[in-house]
Design goal:
With 264 residues, the chain is an alpha/beta fold. The chain is built from nine helices and 14 strands.
Length: 264
C-alpha cells in the first residue's frame, strides 16, 4: 500500500488495476489502507468462482470496485499483479546432451504422457558459456509472460506496474545445478512435480525468469525502476517502523515475510 500510494500521488492518479485478485484480500487491504486515494479499483479475473468471492468481500467499497473481462485499451495509474506471472503457461525444453527438444504431452497407451520433438527453441543464449547445460536438463522458457508484459507496456500510458512473484534473475534461473527446472504442482498444501496426475485438481506453477520479463518490458518501451527481494521491498516501504507497535504474533508473521528461507 505504501508503494502504490506513492505512485498514485506521483502521477496525480487514483486508478488501480489488479490482475488475478484471488480471494480479494490484497484488494481489500489496499482499499482500506489508501482510502480516498483510490477512486477506481478495476480487477481483471476470468474465474467466475473467484470473481463471486471477490464481489462479496469487496461489496462495502461500492462503485469504486469494478470487474473487467479483458485488458483495457489504455490505462493510467498503478497495475498490481501478485503471483500472476508465475501462474502463466511455460514451454518446457529438454536437453539430451546433443540437442534441445520441446517437451509436450501426447496420448500414449490410454493415458497422457510426456513426448519430445526437436526444436530450435533455446534458453537465453550465453547464460553460462563456461558451464554448458547438463545432459538430461529440463527447464522452462516464458514466451507467454513476456508477451503479456509487452502488451501491458503498450496499454500503460502513465504509471507503475508492480509484480510480486517467485523467481530468479536469468543467471540464477539457468544454473547448471537447477537442471530439473522449476515446474511444480500444489494441492492441499502438498507439492509434486507431475502435472499429468490428478488433472484439473492442482495448481501448476513455474518460477519467473525476471531478466526475461525486464527485457521484454524495456523492449516494449517501459522502464524498470526497481527490482529487489520481498524483504528489502517491505523494509524500504517502512515495515520496521510499523513493527515497533506490533504484537508478538504480528512480528512473527512479519519475520516470515522477510526471512530469506521463508518468503523474503
Amino acid at each position: 500500500a505504501a508503494q502504490v500510494g506513492q505512485a498514485l500521488a506521483a502521477g496525480g492518479q487514483g486508478a488501480v488495476l489488479e490482475f488475478g485478485a484471488g480471494s480479494g484480500a490484497l484488494a481489500e487491504a489496499l482499499l482500506d489502507a489508501l482510502g480516498d486515494a483510490v477512486t477506481d479499483y478495476a480487477i481483471v479475473d476470468l474465474s467466475g468462482v473467484l470473481r463471486q468471492r471477490q464481489q462479496a468481500r469487496l461489496a462495502r467499497f461500492g462503485g469504486r470496485v469494478r470487474w473487467l473481462d479483458a485488458l483495457p485499451d489504455r490505462f493510467s495509474g498503478v497495475v498490481v499483479g501478485n503471483e500472476v506471472l508465475d501462474a502463466m503457461p511455460v514451454q518446457l525444453l529438454h536437453f539430451d546432451g546433443q540437442q534441445w527438444w520441446e517437451r509436450g504431452v501426447a496420448w500414449h497407451g490410454g493415458a497422457l504422457a510426456w513426448a519430445d520433438r526437436p526444436t530450435t527453441l533455446r534458453p537465453p543464449p550465453g547464460v553460462w558459456p563456461d558451464a554448458p547445460f547438463v545432459p538430461g536438463t529440463t527447464t522452462e522458457i516464458h514466451p507467454q509472460a513476456e508477451a503479456f508484459i509487452r502488451t501491458l507496456a503498450g496499454v500503460l500510458q502513465q504509471g507503475l506496474a508492480l509484480f510480486i512473484d517467485y523467481g530468479f534473475p536469468e543467471a540464477e534461473y539457468y544454473l547448471p545445478q537447477r537442471h530439473g527446472g522449476t515446474l511444480m504442482c500444489h494441492r492441499a498444501h502438498r507439492a509434486d512435480p507431475d502435472p499429468l496426475a490428478d488433472l484439473g485438481l492442482k495448481d501448476i506453477t513455474a518460477h519467473v525468469d525476471f531478466t526475461a520479463v525486464a527485457l521484454a518490458a524495456q523492449e516494449a518501451g517501459a522502464e524498470v525502476v526497481g527490482y529487489t527481494s520481498q524483504a528489502r521491498f517491505l523494509i524500504n516501504c517502512g515495515l520496521p517502523a510499523m513493527l515497533e507497535s506490533a504484537s508478538i504474533a504480528e512480528r512473527a508473521m512479519a519475520q516470515k515475510l522477510m526471512h530469506e528461507h521463508e518468503m523474503g
